[in-house]
Amino acid sequence: MADRDALAEANEKRWSQAKLTRDFTSIAKSLVAAKATYQAVAAKTGVPWPLIAVIHERESSQDWRRSLAQGDPWDRRSVHVPAGRGPFASWEEAAVDALVNCPPYAARNADWSIGGALTLLERYNGLGYASRGLPSPYLWSGTDQYIAGKYVRDGVYDPRAVDAQAGCAALLMAMMALDPTARWTGFSFSPIHFEPPSSQASPSVSHPAKGSVGAFFNRVLASLFERKKP
């Protein structure tokens, strides 16, 4: 089991050093264009809209017919993990369920530092790479922090396989270049309470446990400006 604090520290360090190796402007434009929809889900879950956007891209290439949880159609019962979810009345309803009621229970996250946010995204995909001491392509594909290595199916790791998708960190960088609000400036972290399924404890969102939101964005901006230096 990967140590979460150590993983957050490693991801923060990778973020400070990362440079894009591919152009994701087109994808980022599409994600930013749907900001209002992502913000509606953010208001119900406490998860910042840029994270919702990049999860949507990674899980289903921003297909509005498919669930944020695992990319299965949201209008029928899911068959992939997390299985047995749905059917739902809308993409938004399915997205709220994925963030509130499914591991890693993103709506309960209390650490929105860059390391904490990236680690939440990595947990969304699984910690198989972290257990090997490797950067996760779910985060770092499309940056110089990732070269090769991929789980080609459950439990099967191929060190020569290369993830062709844009990683979440790469997408966040591309979105930030287009829209200042993708830096989450002014996002409200007010506690939100949910009605839990009978088999689960009640989840809630609390204020960040590490540092302030303002300090986080200062670090993000500093790292972005640092990358732009010749």
Task: Describe the protein in words.
The structure is a single chain. The chain is 45% helix and 3% strand. The protein starts with a helix and ends with a helix. The chain is globular, with a radius of gyration of 17 Å. Helix 1 packs across helix 6. The chain has one domain. Strands 1-2 form a two-stranded antiparallel ribbon. The protein is mostly helical. The C terminus is likely disordered.
Question: TL;DR?
Answer:
This protein has one domain. It is about 45% helix and about 5% strand. It contains ten helices and two strands; from the N terminus they run H-H-H-H-H-H-H-H-E-E-H-H.
H/E element order: HHHHHHHHEEHH
Radius of gyration: 17 Å
Strand order of the largest sheet: 1-2
Helical segment count = 10
Compile the SSE list and pairings.
Blueprint: H1 4-17, H2 25-33, H3 35-45, H4 49-60, H5 91-101, H6 114-125, H7 128-131, H8 137-140, E1 150-153, E2 156-158, H9 168-178, H10 213-228
Helix pairs in contact: 1-6, 2-9, 3-4, 3-5, 4-9
Which labels suit this protein?
single chain; mainly alpha; two-stranded antiparallel ribbon; 2 strands; 3% strand; disordered C terminus
